[in-house]
């Protein structure tokens, strides 16, 4: 296997994306002394479309497509992604090589005046761009008003501080990575807002045939994160969902009689929050991918397909 003198990391240009890419850069430097590792900022479709809700422009691959194309052209060697943005289907010659240890997967509540989500006054405006959050928040508080919120993390927080919104709901992981945890008023219980598939996890994508990079990235793998996110993505894949549909899933490894068991919770809901179908499954960790499919089938059997048909405009088909 030929040694590499230089590694080029592809990344989006937001503050959070750069933090994640720089984290991977530092980790690779530890195990690859003498190798020059640089970042290449790439603007994606999702970064360029800021005036339209993501759910209306497709959702799938909006934050990864241009980065993958650069990797296929061999302009970059690896791509660092927030796993919640990564489609379940990747180009044939690319794959996810590893995932680093997951940060807090929960949603976070930020507000100038309210101490918690349930303490918001009636009719309060809450900013979010996620149909998953919208569905669950309206189920808990049908009296609030959901407002579309786009832009980078710092932009979203600034809009809330300027009074454009009474509150915003964001991923806790990004806020903590940026060092802004003191702005979080409340970590929302997953029973109220089940997290997005892959939320809090960083994935690294590379070419399947790049033996040097696949070997180098193996040192960054966090197996528990991988096992959990694989189960979540299997659930999403069976439901034919992207990152901007009212689907949620969260897996965690728990101890049961001295054994490691994977607990996967999943949810499908209507955009208005008036219908929510949720359940969970317990399986040995090694069976996470199969668990995702089984849980999806359970929800489909209870009416999730009808809800998603309204969102997609088409039937959810079987394998």
CATH topology of the largest domain: D-Maltodextrin-Binding Protein, domain 2
Number of helices: 9
Level of helix content? 25-40%
Q: What is the fourth-level CATH superfamily of the largest domain?
A: Periplasmic binding protein-like II
What does it look like?
The chain has helices spanning 15-31, 45-48, 65-72, 131-140, 153-161, 172-177, 211-217, 223-238, 288-312, and strands at 6-11, 36-41, 78-82, 94-99, 107-111, 125-127, 145-147, 167-171, 186-187, 202-207, 247-256, 259-269, 276-284. The chain has 319 residues and is of the alpha/beta class. The strands form 3 sheets. Strands 2-1-3-10-4 form a 5-stranded mixed β-sheet, sandwiched between helices. Helix 8 (223-238) runs parallel beside helix 9 (288-312). Mean pLDDT is 91; it is low at 48-54.
Give a short overview.
This protein is of the alpha/beta class and 319 residues long.
Explain the layout of strands and helices.
Elements lengths: L5 E6 L3 H17 L4 E6 L3 H4 L16 H8 L5 E5 L11 E6 L7 E5 L13 E3 L3 H10 L4 E3 L5 H9 L5 E5 H6 L8 E2 L14 E6 L3 H7 L5 H16 L8 E10 L2 E11 L6 E9 L3 H25 L7
Parallel strand pairs: 1-2, 1-3, 6-7, 6-8
Antiparallel strand pairs: 3-10, 4-10, 5-8, 5-9, 11-12, 12-13
Helix pairs in contact: 8-9
